[in-house]
From TrEMBL:
Catalyzes xyloglucan endohydrolysis (XEH) and/or endotransglycosylation (XET). Cleaves and religates xyloglucan polymers, an essential constituent of the primary cell wall, and thereby participates in cell wall construction of growing tissues. Its EC number is 2.4.1.207. Keywords: Apoplast, Cell wall, Cell wall biogenesis/degradation, Disulfide bond, Glycosidase, Hydrolase, Secreted, Signal, Transferase. One of its GO terms (biological process) is cell wall biogenesis. The active site is at residues 116, 120. Belongs to the glycosyl hydrolase 16 family. This is Xyloglucan endotransglucosylase/hydrolase. SUPFAM superfamilies: Concanavalin A-like lectins/glucanases.
């Protein structure tokens, strides 16, 4: 083999190796490589007649909202802890009043003491992007809202992006495309407010005209219907349990290492960068609502400064007009 030939092949291999690295991504942003389930393996139709449609090999599904009804699906199993994820593409253009939710709840079993972990996507008028809201309830703690809201660094109606919930005994992490955007560490003082009972996964689209966009100023306009949200890459990597006799068996189903039990230092840096740029609301900094922030709040000077500069009335020393905050979860029957 001539010297020039070996140089060419060396370059060739170097190039392939580089491409392989690019395809896999950097280790900290890579997927956990958890199994993806088909719709029929993990989920079932919840409501909305024929507004749920399976695609391709049944690994993708879409939900739609039209003048007749919204729609939704629900996991077949209840889970105690795990990693739950979906790639979601939201409807484009005018989506004011439309809400898409991807969440865990046990409200149908524990009416007064339910737990909940939410991703909610709030539609917007044309030209303005969707906003994302996260929330956590434990043991029926609906009197304490723990909402946060963010905008994203991409248009979530352009393409699929991955939204994930990690829930362990000690921590809840919300991720967007594997970037953690919120971490809730369980503290003793939170008591029962940290979700602790098995929950099912839900995905829904519904008409929230009366609160979703500027407190109800912009309503759903059915001229643009149907509003279609697409889901794929469904991951339900949790400990499936019987709601009554849950517990110890989960250590075998979720052995240490199969899901993260903490976020890495590198991820934490990404999270902090995200929050100081994209967070638009956090209950922890809302002094009009909580004179003393709830016990799990870890205040961060950069987050505080960002919120104050974008909304001095809510997060600064400014006088506040009283704005009634509403949070309502439409139940399957009210849609
Ligand atoms: C959950 O709520 C119920 C009823 O409000 C209360 O009796 C119970 O002590 C709470 N459990 C925890 C763990 O806080």
């Amino acid at each position: 083999m001539s010297a020039s030939w070996s140089l060419v092949s060396l370059l060739f291999f170097a190039c392939c190796a580089l491409l392989a690295v690019l395809a896999v991504g950097s280790p900290e942003s890579s997927n956990l490589d958890l199994p993806v389930v088909s719709f029929d393996e993990g989920y079932a139709h919840l409501f909305g007649e024929d507004n749920l449609v399976l695609h391709g090999d049944g690994k993708s599904v879409h939900l739609s909202l039209d003048e007749r009804t919204g729609s939704g699906f629900v996991s077949q199993d209840l889970y105690l802890h795990g990693f739950f994820s979906a790639s979601i593409k939201l409807p484009a253009d005018y989506t004011a009043g439309v809400v898409v939710a991807f969440y865990m709840s046990n409200g149908d079993i524990f009416e007064k003491t339910h737990d909940e972990i939410d991703f909610e996507f709030l539609g917007n008028i044309r030209g303005k992007d969707w906003r994302v809201q996260t929330n956590v309830y434990g043991n029926g703690s609906v009197g304490i809202g723990r909402e946060e809201r963010y905008n994203l660094w991409f248009d979530p109606s352009d393409d699929f992006h991955q939204y994930s919930i990690l829930w362990t005994n000690a921590l809840i992490v919300f991720y967007v495309d594997n970037v953690p955007i919120r971490e809730v560490k369980r503290t003793k003082a939170m008591g029962g407010d940290f979700p602790s009972k098995p929950m099912t996964l839900y995905a829904t689209i519904w008409d929230a005209s009366n609160w979703a966009t500027n407190g109800g100023k912009y309503r759903v306009n059915y001229k643009y219907a149907p509003y279609i949200v697409q889901f794929s890459d469904l991951v339900l990597h949790g400990c499936a349990v019987d709601p009554i006799e849950h517990s110890s068996a989960c250590d075998a189903v979720l052995p240490s290492g199969s899901i993260p039990y903490a976020i890495t230092h590198e991820q934490k840096v990404h999270m902090e960068n995200f929050r100081k740029r994209h967070m638009t609301y956090s209950y922890c900094y809302d002094r009009a609502r909580y004179k003393v922030p709830p016990p799990e709040c870890v205040l961060n000077a950069k987050e505080a400064e960002h919120l104050r500069s974008s909304d001095p009335v809510t997060f600064g020393q400014g006088k506040r007009r009283f704005v009634k905050r509403r949070h309502r979860r439409a139940s399957a029957t009210s849609m």
